[in-house]
Every structure is written in C-alpha cells, then in structure tokens.
C-alpha cells in the first residue's frame, strides 16, 4: 500500500529492468487490495479496516487510503451501470430485493437493494441493473 524506492543497478550497456519486479501491482498486492475492497463492500468501516490489516500481519492503513480504494470501486460501479444492454431481447426479467439497515447521515435507516436480472434468448443470465431504495415503515 504505497511506493517502494528501488535502487536499479547501472550497466555499461542496456539497462536492468526486470519486468516481474516492476509490474504496477504484483499478485500479493492485488490480493491485499481484493481483501480491503471486499471488506469495505461487506460493511467494514474505514476505522476498523486498520485492525483487520493488523490481524493479517500488516502495519495497517489509514482511513484516507481506504477511501481512495472505495473511489476506484465507484468508477467500476458507474461503468457497470452505464454499459450497453445490447445482449437482448430478454426472454425473462425479474426483480429481487434485499432489505437491511444502513448508516445514512449519522443514523440507521432501512434500505432495499433491488436487482434486475434477465435471461437473453441464448439462455445466458446477466444482471441488468440495481438500485438502492429507502424503505419507509409506517406503524
């Protein structure tokens, strides 16, 4: 989670740039990023993320770094929501929802995650879209 300064040896001819060492993200770092993003998606707060990483044997991370990772998730979600649905027509389309409590503005409110799933004429199932809706319970 950060940059490492590497001293690259000087050669008389050519240069020494091992491709496996200088890749933007190595396999272990990708796995660590996957753990952090999965924990964030599952609702682990940015404050508790530091304890999670320390239990994995790492120094931990700051809340700002976790928030930066969450911003990359926002870009992926936006790309998914704005993609072209040209795989249709869809033989079947159905909606499903899961209701759960969520923090919003310092208080806990009930929200529903609604998912639209479709089956195209080739029989392939795909997620068409999703939305988060507030649930109002009058009692």
- List the domain count as a whole number: 2
Summed over residues and divided by their number, the pLDDT gives a mean of 76
Order of helices and strands: HHHEEE
Radius of gyration over all CA atoms, rounded: 22 Å
β-sheet strand percentage: 25-35%
Tell me about the largest β-sheet. 3 strands, antiparallel
Shape from CA axes? flat
Q: SS-based structural class?
A: alpha+beta
What strand order characterises the main sheet? 1-2-3
Distance between the termini: 48 Å
> Count of DSSP helices?
3
Poorly predicted regions are none
What is this structure's SSE topology?
Elements (H helix, E strand, L loop, with lengths): L26 H15 L4 H10 L7 H19 L8 E15 L2 E14 L4 E10 L5
Antiparallel strand pairs: 1-2, 2-3
Descriptive notes:
The protein is an alpha+beta fold and 139 residues long. It has 2 domains: 1-83, no CATH class; 90-134, no CATH class. It contains 3 helices and 3 strands. The protein has helices at 27-41, 46-55, 63-81; strands at 90-104, 107-120, 125-134. The protein has a 3-stranded antiparallel β-sheet, with no helix packed on it. Helix 1 packs across helix 3 (63-81). The longest helix is centred in the middle third of the chain and has 19 residues, at 63-81. The protein is flat. The N and C termini lie far apart (48 Å). The mean pLDDT is 76.
